[in-house]
Amino acid sequence: MYPAARRDEIVENLHGTPVPDPYRWLEDSDDPEVKGWLLAQEELFQAQAEPRRFKERIAELLRSGSVGVPVWRGERHFFSRRTPDQEHAVYYVVDADGTERALIDPMAIDSSGLTTLDAVQPDKEGRLLAYQISVGGDEESSLYIIDVATGTRVEGPIDRCRYSPVAWLPGGEAYYYVRRLPSTEVPEGESQFHRRVYLHRVGTSTEDDVMIFGDGMKMTNYYGVSVSRDGRWLQISASEGTAPRNDLWIADLSASPAERPALTVVQEGVDAQTGLVFGRDGRIYVHTDRDASRARVCVADPADPSAWTDLIPEDPEAVLTDFAILDDLERPVMLVGWTRHALSEISLHSLDSGERIGEVPTPGLGTIGGISERPEGGHEAWFGYTDNTTPPTIQRYDALTGETTLWAASPGAVEVPPVKTSQVVYQSKDGTPVHMLVIEPVDREGPRPTILNGYGGFGISMTPGYSASVLAWVEAGGVYAIAGLRGGGEEGEDWHRAGMLANKQNVFDDFHSAAEHLIATGVTTSSHLAISGGSNGGLLVGAALTQRPDLYAAVACSAPLLDMIRYELFGLGATWNVEYGSAEEPTQFPWLWAYSPYHHVREDVSYPATLFTVFQSDTRVHPLHAWKMCAALQHAQAGDAPIVLRNETEVGHGARSVSRTVDLAADQLTFLARHTGL
Question: Is 535 a catalytic residue?
Answer without folding.
Answer: yes
